Amino acid sequence: MTNAIEVRDLKKEFKSYSSRSGLKGAFRDLFTRNYKVISAVNNIGFTVKQGEMVGYIGENGAGKSTTIKMLTGILTPTSGNVVVNGMIPYKEREKFVKSIGVVFGQRSQLWWDIAVQESFQLLKKVYNVPDEQYKSHMDHVISTLDIGPLLDKPVRKLSLGQRMRCELAAALVHNPPLLFLDEPTIGLDVLVKLKIRQFLKEINKKYNTTILLTTHDLSDIEALCERVVMLDEGKIIYDGPLKRLKENWGDQREIHFQFLEDTSLASLIDLTNDMEVEWGYNTKEQRYEAIVAADEERISALITKVVSTHKVKDMKILETTTEEIIRNIYEVGTV
């Protein structure tokens, strides 16, 4: 299987200028500026195989968007090597952009005042897509994303969810083998997110489209990606299966109890004082919550002890969520 993306020792630095205070400082700034070099991406390396769906995650300022901009040819790296679809993005710009699709959640590639379908036709001309190929492919895209009723509307009259579905369709006019998605579901409601996720799974299966997804919504990652690349302060701190990340870090379980009779937090703590368990009370949901190690024997012993002395109305055992795992990793600073 060939690699769609190959990154080696990739680095991007920016100069950050600062002004001196006072009139004298402003005068000195005319001749010499104070600046410091900020490393947004620091010697990272990874590969993505053709047909993979990879989640590229990190906190704000970790370097995700900077990486995407280098992979798409918008930014030139300070140093290192990047090859995407067999080309160097910033050197073979015109040829390269015909082989990728890009959706930035906070930027639009559609023309604001014209109908959506006119934007599609313009992009068809830009990418020199044959009429027959355009019709068969876009009919499927438009139908799957359910944007048929929106085609005659100008973009400025669309809701955010409608516009994002049209943005995704626009990125696929030329049916690229590689799709970059930067926060594609930001601000969208649950139903629109589900529709977009289902569509991405479908094009990945039908066309073997490679997808690199950056998002803060980890439910997108869980729904679409088996592999994640995690970035922190410009460096990759994890690259591997999402399943392994959850196995290694999802080392706790949360058990929710609701009782038929009145009880107290103090009595539960006293009941389990010989066990390693952390109790809390959720006022909003009116339930008691116990956090215990993800060990079957310990969980079984805790439940046995509680139900032997209290009448239980409801009980749930929850795994640690991916969001909590990621937060714990960033607090520790390493995987």
Topology of helices and strands:
Elements lengths: L2 E16 L3 H8 L4 E16 L3 E6 L5 H8 L7 E6 L8 H5 L2 E5 L11 H11 L4 H15 L14 H12 L6 E5 L7 H18 L2 E5 L3 H7 L2 E6 L2 E7 H8 L2 E8 L5 H7 L5 E6 L4 E7 L2 H14 L2 E8 L2 H11 L3
Parallel strand pairs: 3-7, 3-8, 5-6, 6-7
Antiparallel strand pairs: 1-2, 1-4, 8-9, 10-12, 10-13, 11-12
What does this structure look like?
Keywords: ATP-binding, Nucleotide-binding, Transport. This is ABC-2 type transport system ATP-binding protein. One of its GO terms (molecular function) is ATP binding. It contains twelve helices and 13 strands. With 335 residues, it is an alpha/beta fold. The strands form three sheets. A six-stranded mixed β-sheet has the order 5-6-7-3-8-9, with helices on both faces. The longest helix is centred in the middle third of the chain and has 18 residues. The chain is globular and about 75 Å long. It starts with a strand and ends with a helix.
Report a brief summary of the structure.
By secondary structure, this protein is of the alpha/beta class. The protein has helices at residues 22-29, 64-71, 93-97, 116-126, 131-145, 160-171, 190-207, 218-224, 242-249, 265-271, 296-309, 322-332; strands at 3-18, 34-49, 53-58, 79-84, 100-104, 178-182, 210-214, 227-232, 235-241, 252-259, 277-282, 287-293, 312-319. The chain has a six-stranded mixed β-sheet with strand order 5-6-7-3-8-9, sandwiched between helices.
